[in-house]
Structure formats: C-alpha cells, structure tokens
Amino acid sequence: MAKSARHNIQRQKHNQSTHKSLGKKFPRVGKKCQVYLTAEQKHRFANDAGKCRFVYNNILSRHNDYYNQLLDEENRLEFLAECEWQFKGIAKPEEIRVDEKLEEISAVNEHAFKLIFNDLKKEFDWLAEANQKVLWGAAQNLIKAFTNFFEHPESFGYPKRKKKKVVLLKCTFNSQCFTGIYGNRVNLTKDYQDMRFDCSKSDMRYLNKYQDYIQFTTMSKTKSGKYFISFNVGDFLPNLKYQQNRIPDGIACYTGLMKDENDFVEVVSDDDDKIGTYLMVTDKETGEITWRRATGYDRGIKDKLISSDGEKVLNNHYLKKHEKKLAHLQRMFSKKQPRSAAYNGKCDFEIPKNSPCAGRNREKCRVKMAKEYETVSNIRENDNRQMSVQMLLKNDVIFLEDLNITGMMKNHCLAAAIADAGWGQSDEFVEQGAKRYGRTVIRVGRFYPSSRLCPVCGHKHEGLELSDRAWVCPHCGHVVDDRDVNAAENILKEGIELYRDMLGDRYAVAVVRIKRQVGLSLPDQKPVGEAPVGESVNQEAVL
Asked: What is the pLDDT of residues 82-139, one digit of tens each?
C-alpha cells in the first residue's frame, strides 16, 4: 500500500474518533475560499451537482408518497405489504399501528433513506458515473433538513424540491472524500485533484495545520460563474483578544460610592476609550466580583446602527450607489434574445439554428449583471462583518431590539432601505460571534417603546411621529435632542433589567455609567471605599 493511502486511512480513523468529542466542545467554523477549476473539472462538477439535485428531489418525493399512502385508509394494508422492507423485521402489516408508523416516518429514519437511495442507483444506471459518497451527501443534506424541521419548526420550513434554475450548483464531500491540503492546493476525489484556492494567510495556515479535523467540504458555483469551496472545521484556536474583558483601569474605585449591590453611579470622562456602561456582577454566595461592559444598540435607516454611548455607524446605501449601472445592465439584458427564441425562429433577424452564438450575448449580459449584484452583496457583507467584530471586541454584553424585520419589509416605503442596510445579516453575525467567543446577546421585546420613553421620568409620549427626530417630554419638559440615541439608551436600561432576571437572585448587578465631558478624566484607581476626588458623581436609581 502506498504511503499516501496509508496516511489517508489513518487520518480518517483519527477523524472518526475525535469528531464526536470535539463537536460537543467546540462550535463548527467554516472557512470559505474561492477555488479555480479546470475546464474538465467544471464539466464534471456540473454533472455531479445535477445528479445530487436529482437524488435529493427523488428521495423527497418518495418519502412524501410513502407518508401520503399511510394516510390513505383504503389502500393502507396493500401498501404496507408492498413496503415490508421499511418495517425493520416486522412480519405482519396488520399488526402495525398506523399512528406509530406515522410517528416513525415523522422522525428521520436514516435507514429508510439509505434503502431509497440504493433503489435509485439500481433504477437509474447513469447515477453510477458519479462518486457514490458525493451522491449520499445530498441524501444526508435532506436528512438534516428534516431534522431541522422537526426539532425547530419555528425556524425551518418543510424541505422543498430544488429547482434547476433557482438553486445554485452545490456538492457536499464528506471526510472520506477529502484527501488533503498542500499549501494553497486541495485534493478531494480523483476527479478533483490539485485545485488552487485563494484565502488569507492566517486561514491558509489554519487549514494546513488542522486539516485532519475537517469534517466535510462543500463546493458551490455562484450565478456570476465563480466557484467556492467551504471547509467545515472545529474551532480549536480561541482568539484571546475576544476573551479579554474590555474594562479600563480605575473602574473599581467607584465601588465605594455604591449604596447597595444594585446601585447606579454616573461619572464623566474625557477619554473616549473609557466612555460606556460597565456592570459589576457580584456573586452573593462567594462574594466574587466580575466587571462586564454593556451597550445597547438601535437600528436606523440614515444611521444603520446607533449605540447608547452616542456612536453611530453611517448607512452607506450600497444598492443605491450601483442603481444606475444596474439599470443600464438590465436594459441591455432585456434587449438580448434568449437562446430558445433563436432556435425557434422568433427573432427579427435570421440566426442559423446550429450557430454557437445563438443566445450567448444574453448569457454574457446576465453574468455581468450577476457580478454587479455580487459586488453590492460583498460590500454589504464585509461592512456588517467588520461592524459585528467591533461590537464583540468592545462589549461583553450586547443588547439588541427584537425587530420584526419580515413584517417591516411589507411596508413598500421602507422595504428597499431595510434590505439594503442588512439588519438581519448583521444581527446574525453578532449572534454567531457571541456563541464562538463567549459574549452575551440579549433581545429586548419588539413591543418595548424605546423611542417614545423619556430618559428622565420614563413618560411614554403617545403622540410621537416617525418624522419627529427631536421632541420635548410633555410630563417633565426634558428635551430629547436625538431620537435614535434616546432609543438606544432605553434599550440599554431595559436590557440590564432583563440581564438581572436572567442571572437570578444569586447575582447582584450594579451599574457604572461613564459619560463624555471635555476637561474631566477618569481618576486613578484608589482603594475600594474611598470616593474619587474632583469627579461629578450622580447617584440615582435610574435603572
């Protein structure tokens, strides 16, 4: 046996023994890179992706037919007798309780899927041309889709058929198909050897060092004609800069100013790096004190993110900047004749039926338009990722508003602006990063009136309109200069109360709020119990 073959067998056995334990301790991380294929590999990938789609759709159809046949009371016994192979040793179909059988079908039965898959291979001989492990990967994706639907029906819908013109070309390769990574080259099956991929230097070192822990890879093709490969790896390298508490020196000196364990202290400082809200979490049983930095965030259209510290992230209006070029490409695309029209003789000018140029200009224009849309999407995704990383680096506890983005998208006046800002995408990135690096994300209720509440007296302004960016409290006369900043501060207040409820009675949460004021600075750290000199301190139980 060759040395490389022995190494692959040893690596596969090592993966099978380690993936179970590693999957429980470490979240999975995907490294997505652009890959470059030869013309032969592109043709092979298109065939494999089509066969995978065929297997996925046929197994789904047969599974649905089997379930519907069980619901039919007239032909139930005949059908059960024909499908005796489904019963795992049960001899008499008359003894089978239908409710139990429906429950068994509802629960994902991998054995039944495997039998359907074997029948497909016998029925369609041309499926043998593809790698059987790649085809079984499509069946495993269907099993995962059913599992997600039954375990989390509120988040995942019932699996649907994959349409050729809608779904992107995609193939999944399990760990047995993965041969190895050598520098910037990756080898999968015998048909996909020596494929060059592009990624950052840090990701390349990570993939080369921990390639033995790659569980599966997914190769896909976008509408713009680019190919990407995604490596699913366990995260074994925790990033220390994410785990450090972003607490400046001198905060502990304000402990002596607190009257009780849930008190609120407000000071001023001219250091922008120290502006923020800090939570002193005290364990009542052990007396251990932990400091955490917290920030509340509000969403907007002009500024897509507003923090309770007064910081704003400007909305770049990604799609609006490319609308002119996209409109030009769409006009050009509508004037191009499709390939079917050229073959059917529906064009105004005569095109030979066997001409290789028939409909090719339309495809070229479609690719140009897809690349422009992909550029807009990449810019938006990059900005949202950078913004989420900054939020995770800065805070230990993040408070967000639970917005009904799907419902807000039904408003035709705001739908385009909300979709262009990418609210849902940025929230998803924040939650994913929080799970990986130990941050806490708390959602404030969507019906909480954060924009209407006065920050001083808590009065709710019922007559406030969306166009009112600044308003005066009718109860106490407080002037709210910025509606969005006021909403972020109210989200912070409500989030702290939710955080206290989440921790329970064992922990006490005190709050230190440092505001911006020119000329004053944070004092040097003094022993606990001594009040800092020269600072403006306001002790009010605001929270």
From this structure: 554 444 443 344 444 444 544 455 456 677 788 888 888 888 888 888 888 888 888 8
State the CB neighbour count (10 A cutoff) for residue 479. 9
253's CB contacts (< 8 A; 6+ apart) are 523, 524, 525, 526, 527, 528, 530, 532
Domain enclosing residue 483, as ranges: 251-516
Contacts of 442 (CB under 8 A, 6+ apart): 397, 398, 399, 400, 495, 498, 499, 502
| Contact of 365 with 332, CB cutoff 8 Å | yes
Residue 518, pLDDT score: 45
- Residue 59's nearest CA partner among 70, 67, 69 is 67
Backbone angles phi, psi at 447, to 5 degrees: -95, 5
User: Is there a domain that residue 8 lies in?
Assistant: yes
* Beta-carbon count within 10 A of 407 CB: 9
Residues 6+ apart with CB under 8 A from 456: 473, 476, 478
Question: How many CB atoms lie under 10 A from the CB of residue 536?
Answer: 10
pLDDT 10s digits, 362-386: 888 888 999 999 999 999 999 999 9
pLDDT of 27: 53
Alpha-carbon distance of 500 to 491, in angstroms, equals: 14
The answer to whether 520 and 269 are in contact (CB under 8 A) is yes
Residue 539 covered by a domain: no
What secondary structure does DSSP assign to 282-301, as a single string?
Answer: EETTT--EEEEEEEEEE--S
Question: Both 267 and 199 in a single domain?
Answer: no
Residue 353: the pLDDT is 47
> What mean pLDDT value characterizes the chain?
76
* Backbone angles phi and psi of 430, in degrees to 5: -65, -45
Q: Which amino acid appears at position 281 of this protein?
A: V
Residue 265 and residue 162 share a domain? no
